[in-house]
Amino acid sequence: MEKKGLYGFLKLFHEHAQFAGWPAVEITRATIEKGNHLPYVDFLPEAKQCRHCGSDLHVQKSKKRIVITIDTGTIHAREIRKVCSVDLSHPVETSRVLAQMVPAGQRYGYDLIVAVGVARYLRNMQREEIRVELLHEKDIVLSTGTISQLCDRFLLYLEALHLNRASALRAAMEGSSYPLHIDATSESEDTLFVFRLFFLAIQMAYCGTERKEICHLVEDAIATAKYIIEGFPSLADIGHWVVG
Amino acid sequence: MTIRTPDMIVQLLRSKKVVRFEEIQEALCAASRTTTFRFLKQVPYIRSYNYNGCYYASRDSTIFDSLGLYSYGDICFSRDRKLDKTVSRLVCESEAGLTQRELQDLLKVRVQVLLLNAVRRKIIYREKVEGFYLYLHNDPATRKSQLKVRHSSIATSAYSEPGDSLQIDSHIVIKVLLILIRHPSLCPAEVVRALRGYVPPVTMEQVVSVFDRYSLEDIGKKRALRFPETIP
Fold it and tell me: Cβ neighbours of residue A237 under 8 Å, at least 6 residues apart?
């Protein structure tokens, strides 16, 4: 059967079915074919010629794996790899769509990693809660151990993205804005606050749990941060100040 | 000698979502068919309504969806246990009755014979609407309300002001996409043919409009990436 475009149709179908209020179980059931538990999707390389010599490509091999994403649910992805017909040492061409959808050799898509990471770190959900939510809303079955792994991967990719975009972030902060990280921990009645400007802890304080006291403390911290920023307008200057 | 107990089957059904009869026999230490059926009677279980009922699962009311169906891959189960009862129930519970095609989409199996049997045994009623049989509740009052809803949906789909752009329901888009997921290379005319059996019918204009709106003919077309600077 011609499988051209199946990925696009699946993605569009998931969008419309969710919009129409279909339950996740029904969406999965609708896409399953008889005798074949999951839809089989072919991913061919977009390139038609070798990027080095311009020669024609021929199929080197195909690789199958189960891929789970939020967009398409669970599918059987068959990646068809092509190689230069003249010189086999030239780079192998693979599907860019699949590469952007899921990390190489893995089964969980980037969108699923982000969904799990956001649920864990921004919505403060626990592993079991994330597992139940994914099962009910997307019909995706994950173990709590897998969720932990996906959370770790999320942090790793976030760090990589942060480093990759460091220059843009630095440029954005060179104006009047600055990152001030506020954290607190509480034991018995007192609360320990830590305010971090870049990597520098600028203030630590014990205070009670009164809202007024906390507000004062945050205001003080912001004032101190502003003072430092005005004195040392660039990140490098602050580093010199700390080392010095 | 091993003492067989129904707990052996319960453990098996807990460990696996779906099992075959042979696996149950194996769990009962190679018991005969008769012995296996005797032990199965003591265990809450359901049998698949497709694949000749060869798959078994633990009977748990929480696994069924709003339609009373449960599927594991392409293996389907119903809370009514039997397909004929499921068909009758779905027809009676539906808001606007169901055509054979709509029931087939829900249940993933052919239902023509079961529907005809149910009509002959006066469990459900059928009436021709827009050239297709619509299966309805046997109670005249419920049937009337089902027909009213169906006729209103037909009127809504047929009504369009001259000069207005064609109204495309999201259900039509979903139907078209489901056909394309199974047969990605079909053209609009073939999609219309594959969508026969729905009331109101899906028209050629609607399918062409869906194709145009979502550029379905372009989806998946692989653009040739050429590298002219590297070509000698």
Answer: none
For residue A5, give the nearest of B219, B223, B232 by CB distance.
B219
List all residues 6 or more positions away from A2 whose beta carbon is below 8 Å from its beta carbon.
B184, B185
**Chain A nearest-CA residue for B211:** A9
Which helix (H) or strand (E) covers residue A81, if one does? strand A73-84
What predicted TM-score, i.e. pTM, was given to this entire model?
Answer: 0.70
Residues A98 and A161: their CA atoms lie apart, in Å, by 20
B1 CA: distance to closest CA in chain A (Å): 39
Among A3, A25, A56, A84, most B C-beta atoms within 10 A, so best to mutate, is A25
At B75-108, the pLDDT tens digits run 899 999 889 999 999 999 999 999 999 899 889 8
Q: Token match 């979903």: residue?
A: B174
Q: What percent of chain B has pLDDT over 90?
A: 45
Query: How distant, in Å, are the alpha carbons of A75, A110, B30, B58, B69 from that of B18?
Result: 20, 31, 19, 8, 15
**Torsions phi, psi for B59 (to 5 deg):** -85, 110
Which one, of A30, A43, A127, lies nearest residue A79 by Cα? A43
Q: Decide if B145 contacts B139 (C-beta within 8 A).
A: no
d(CA B50, CA B128): 28
